[in-house]
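Any chance you could type out a protein's amino acid sequence plus the matching backbone structure tokens because I've never seen that pairing?

——
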Amino acid sequence: MLNVLLIEDDFDLAETVGDYLGLESIVCDYASNGVAGLQLAGENAYDVLLLDLNLPRLDGLSLCERLRAAGNDTPILMLTARDRLGEKLAGFEAGTDDYLVKPFELKELVARIHALAHRRSGQIRVLRCGDLEMNLKEGSVARAGREIRLSPTGWKILETLLRASPEVVSRQKLMDAVWGETPPDSDSLKVHLFNLRKAVDGPFARPLLHTVPGKGFAVRAEDAS
């Protein structure tokens, strides 16, 4: 069963959408303004966020930007009466994943929800684990406020692991993500991981980058291997 959050100030539309989603076995929480929606999105785990563009107290674009800046990678489907290209581009820049222009068919809404729910958003701006933070927009990495400099390959490895965190990424999946169809010799990943550990964990008492024997690698605050 999917769980979504609808942030919409039109009560009649929200009631119609919520009732229909319930018939489709989709649990729908509701917020009538941007501030309440931001709070619910931060307190609960949702598969998809349904976000109206014009909201009282905090507009949809600002809400989207705040969620992405906080590291929230829940897919966002923007619901709006505006269908101009410039406004859509502004939404994507703010971090939305898809658009649905009002009025829309409820069947299409359900189809979009299912499509988005099977992945995490690629629009996330900040990746975090413990006191480690990777700012994708600024191209920076820091731990406990201390800047960390990485090679381009080290950056890609860390980004891949942080996107999956705290789950394990297999050696093969990690190599595919970093090098694609042209993998280097077998020792290259080992060397890059060694240098990454030295940069991310070396100056600190608690390691974040873990090798999980027989499974792969993970970035997590606690070693649960």
In short: The chain has eight helices and eleven strands. Residues 187-200 form the longest helix (14 residues).
